[in-house]
């Protein structure tokens, strides 16, 4: 047998993978160190986060926490129905199903009423979107586009998706979080067919950041620069008395460290009392594993909540489980959610600073995808998210170290295999 062709193809594949990894500074296993000690909840912390991410701090925003589809989708549909000038919808997932039809119905109704409606769907995440839904929206006057459809001359970009979930109406009201447009997100996490997730509804100056997250991906997909006042109205504070401080962090694949990963490191390294992390896909690379362990070892109560057996990507679960031992030995509490797929992504630090958005605690979110997360420095909102976290813990199973040490060899083998793939997860 002539091995030249297979060997040549293998060498080309290895060369592609190696060259692609050049953008990952952490391939040399260097991590981060925190210079100074800005405390979450202080102006120093906000200034550090703003400087690192270039995302402006806004104040006077009104934020509503929405838990699970029975609460989220009525608000989602009502917000679209209220549009008078523009509807801008960006999503990674738009699957076939009843809720996808309902979203299309209300967007079409607004388009027929003269509202400028734009829908942008990731070409991979929305691959199962019904052709009829797209045609129906386009016939109603909706601009529908796919983000980065696969091209033979752009194979390497196939791995870089937009994972953002953003809805902005009239440039003044925004929704974001972890929810995709699919029937799996409907209901109230009551069974394995209905997933657990969290979303936010936002009014105020922070909505400009969500509009920017949409406009950035829309520009790439269509070449259209959104600069009209209908999309970018003046956004005065809507709740000046409370002065909720917020940032919208946009993150994209590129050379060096992304905004999301540097922000998360800052939050973990600065924590003094508590870290409550919820992640649908938990496969941390070494520096973030160390950050969680270091926090626990310096006396911070660190709790990590991840999916249990109900998960749509087993390989990610095993990659995450491969690091449980290191976390548990450091004193981190690890919990697996039992009722259904846990798709929420949230981080609450010291009971005063929090993030909600599309980013998971894995390399795909930190380095490969376009993501958007909302950061909130407000004790009452952090309390609300902590209450949601505590409710989730009541239906989760805590992993104990002694029990973990006795797990079967078959599970250990799957964990090892998945850990090797961690960079692409």
Describe this protein's structure:
- This protein is α/β, with parallel strands linked by helices and 425 residues long.
- It is built from 14 helices and 17 strands.
- An eight-stranded mixed beta sheet has the order 8-16-14-13-9-11-12-17, sandwiched between helices. A seven-stranded mixed beta sheet has the order 1-7-6-5-2-3-4, sandwiched between helices.
- Helix 5 links the parallel strand 3 and strand 4.
- Helix 8 packs parallel to helix 10.
- The longest helix is centred in the first third of the chain and has 17 residues.
- It is globular, with a radius of gyration of 21 Å.
- The relative contact order is 0.15.
- The mean pLDDT is 91.
Main features:
17 strands; alpha/beta; eight-stranded mixed beta sheet; 425 residues
Summarize the structure.
The chain is an alpha/beta fold.
């Amino acid at each position: 047998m002539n091995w030249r062709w297979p060997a040549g193809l293998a060498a080309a594949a290895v060369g592609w993978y190696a060259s692609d990894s050049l953008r990952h500074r952490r391939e040399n296993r260097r991590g981060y160190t925190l210079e100074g000690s800005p405390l979450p909840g202080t102006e120093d912390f906000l200034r550090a986060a703003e400087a690192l991410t270039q995302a402006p701090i806004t104040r006077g925003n009104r934020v509503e926490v929405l838990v699970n589809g029975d609460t989220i989708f009525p608000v989602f549909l009502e917000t679209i129905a209220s549009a008078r000038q523009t509807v801008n919808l960006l999503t990674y997932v738009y699957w076939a199903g009843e809720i996808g039809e309902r979203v299309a119905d209300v967007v079409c109704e607004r388009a027929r009423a003269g509202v400028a409606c734009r829908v942008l769907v990731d070409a991979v995440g929305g691959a199962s979107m019904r052709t009829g839904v797209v045609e129906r929206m386009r016939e109603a006057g909706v601009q529908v586009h796919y983000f980065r459809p696969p091209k033979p001359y752009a194979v390497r970009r196939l791995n870089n998706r937009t994972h953002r979930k953003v809805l902005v109406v009239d440039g003044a009201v925004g929704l974001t979080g972890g929810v995709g447009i699919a029937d799996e997100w409907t209901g109230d996490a009551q069974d394995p067919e209905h997933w657990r997730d969290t979303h936010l509804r936002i009014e105020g100056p922070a909505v400009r950041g969500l509009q920017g997250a949409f406009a950035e991906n829309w520009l790439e997909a269509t070449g259209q620069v959104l600069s009209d006042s209908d999309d970018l109205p003046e956004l005065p504070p809507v709740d000046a008395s409370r002065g909720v401080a917020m940032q919208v962090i946009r993150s994209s694949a590129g050379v060096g460290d992304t905004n999301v990963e540097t922000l998360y490191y800052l939050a973990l390294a600065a924590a003094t009392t508590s870290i409550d992390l919820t992640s649908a896909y938990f496969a941390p690379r070494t520096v973030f594993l160390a950050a969680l362990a270091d926090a626990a070892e310096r006396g911070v109560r660190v709790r990590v909540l991840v999916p249990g057996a109900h998960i749509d990507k087993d390989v990610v679960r095993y990659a995450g489980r491969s690091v449980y031992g290191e976390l548990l030995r450091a004193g981190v509490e690890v919990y697996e959610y039992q009722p259904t797929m846990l798709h929420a992504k949230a981080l609450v630090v010291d009971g005063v600073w929090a993030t909600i958005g599309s980013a998971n605690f894995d390399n795909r979110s930190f380095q490969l995808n376009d993501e958007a997360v909302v950061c909130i420095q407000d004790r009452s909102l952090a309390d609300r998210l902590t209450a949601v976290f505590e409710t989730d813990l009541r239906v989760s199973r805590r992993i104990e170290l002694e029990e973990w040490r006795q797990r079967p060899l078959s599970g250990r083998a799957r964990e090892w295999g998945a850990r090797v793939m961690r960079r692409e997860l």
